[in-house]
Amino acid sequence: MTSPADQALISLLREDARASTAELARKLGVSRTTVQSRIDRLEARGVIAGYGVRLSPDYEQGLVRAHVLLTVTPKLADTVVRSLKALPAVRTLHSVSGSFDMIVVVESLSIADLDGLLDRIGAMEGVERTLSSIILSTRIDR
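Structure (tokenized):
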């Protein structure tokens, strides 16, 4: 469990993981040492597992992204996960409840690339059914 102060720090790091400890300290109203010790503690506890890259909107405009809903054979779910993990175009994979078993978020350089990717996913051993929706715009991305 994290404290409200840790949650505030995590929120700021989600906005800009490269923010300096001085900038974070100023926004949180605490010392740089306090910020650094909180970050160190959150990393040591595994709350912060790493830092990533957020792409610019200009770059992302050139990508075609889609949600792909999958129904999979239960005994082959691990095989499907391994196959999806091997595809660089797969950004995230979620297990979900409901009429589908998984939601995959993919990104491609073009509609033609996306079409081929969807064919590969649909042909994977263990994938019984797919339903795809192209993402037109992202309204909120935290």
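The chain is about 40% helix and 20% strand. The mean pLDDT is 93.
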